[in-house]
Amino acid sequence: MSSMDIHQIFQHLHHRYPFLLIDRVLDYTVGEYLVAIKNVTYNEPFFQGHFPHRPIMPGVLVIEAMAQATGILSFKTAELQPEGNSLYYLVGIDNARFKQPVEPGDQLLIEVKLIRTTHGVWKYAATAKVDDKLVASANLMCMKRDISN
Does the predicted model carry a pTM greater than 0.90? Predict the structure, then answer.
């Protein structure tokens, strides 16, 4: 079983607070899958406005957490780390479904499975669960792009 703590995650993602949405990688196999967690706390900045009387994690941020998990697996699989002049971008979302809300106190269990890599585009099947209940699923595509400063 392979895992990653927050310090190892920092080496594979450019994201930082408040936008880093992966707290720990529980398991992964290079080129196959990755399982990660996001601890959802009431102190998350988005809860102030989404929604004040019934805080719910925005669905787009659940998708972003899944996308960050794909980024980690892509870097691990390609045996690379983020460089100053390149990033893995989310370039496509298909079949996104939201089954139930994510609330403060929940722990998202994020699973991503590599479906294929074609012409530099990585395609993944992703799910997010809370207490073994599916809360979201999507097929995500990411691609490494060079950026100019």
Answer: yes
**Residue 12 catalytic?**
no
Q: Which of 103, 25, 32, 92 is nearest to 62 (CA)?
A: 103
Q: Which domain holds residue 50?
A: 6-146
| C-alpha Rg value of the chain to the nearest Å | 15
Kindly report the backbone phi and psi dihedral angles of residue 145, in degrees, each rounded to the nearest multiple of 5, phi listed first. Answer: -130, 140
Tell me if 25 sits within 8 A of 36, measured CB to CB: yes
Catalytic choice (12, 50, 53, 119): 50
Residue 40, classed as helix, strand or coil, is coil
The verdict on residue 1 lying in a domain is no
Q: What is the band of 88 on the pLDDT scale with cuts at 50, 70, 90? A: confident
For 101-136, the pLDDT digits (tens) are 999 999 999 999 999 999 999 999 999 999 999 999
CATH number of the domain at 57, please. Answer: 3.10.129.10
Which sign does the torsion angle of CA 134, 87, 26, 39 carry? negative
Total tally of structural domains belonging to the chain = 1
